[in-house]
């Protein structure tokens, strides 16, 4: 039987580490605070998701999210959640993240560019955003990872849950692929092996 938050001790953990583990286990999953809002009603299902990357709409300047899966490439508007492009059969030399920058050719309005992809093959997204927001990934009940969103000055290691930090995502059923902000800091993305979750803010703070 796995350990619970009531365990008096866990082998190999110091009292401080055990306190952190129990702290994260006790924090319920909640929605992010304002100015963040959910882009999808729940999430966008993407079977066999390999990784994601960000691009910029050449017309609006808004964030675009490129999704790479074993079923092809897709492109989402990060503000509305609309899927604006899909390539179910990309060229074999660009279907999966490749090269030293782990990039793929962009579809739709990103055609002619390459998008860096973070996920199964490596790479990473921004963990901080303008204004002081940041994200952390913890796994107190590994392999089920949790995403913590922290407000400016917020620290998940101190301070009450729901005031400076929030447990916003729990990867219970699928493997976490990538977590992070867009370069603009206006989008927060969580990608797993089966779906994409997005939050957006338009306050520019």
Written account of the structure:
It is a single chain. With 205 residues, the protein is mostly beta strands. The protein is 6% helix and 39% strand. It is built from one helix and 16 strands. The protein has one helix at residues 15-26, and strands spanning 37-38, 44-45, 49-56, 63-69, 72-77, 83-87, 103-105, 114-116, 118-119, 128-129, 133-141, 144-150, 165-170, 176-181, 187-192, 195-200. The strands form four sheets. Strands 1, 2, 14, 15 and 16 form a five-stranded antiparallel sheet that branches. Strand 10 (128-129) and strand 11 form a beta hairpin. The N and C termini lie far apart (45 Å). Residues 1-6 have low confidence and may be disordered.
How many angstroms does the end-to-end distance come to? 45 Å
Q: Tell me the number of helical segments per DSSP (H or I, 4 or more residues long).
A: 1
Helix and strand sequence: HEEEEEEEEEEEEEEEE
Kindly provide the radius of gyration, computed on alpha-carbon positions and rounded to a whole number of angstroms.
Answer: 18 Å
Q: Estimate what percentage of residues fall within beta strands.
A: 35-45%
The total strand number stands at 16
Average residue-wise pLDDT = 92
Major beta sheet summary: 5 strands, antiparallel
Poorly predicted spans: 1-6
- The percent of residues in helical segments reads under 10%
Query: Helix/strand-derived class?
Result: mainly beta
**What global shape is seen?**
globular
List keywords for this structure.
single chain, 205 residues, mainly beta, 5-stranded antiparallel sheet, 1 helix, 39% strand, globular, disordered N terminus
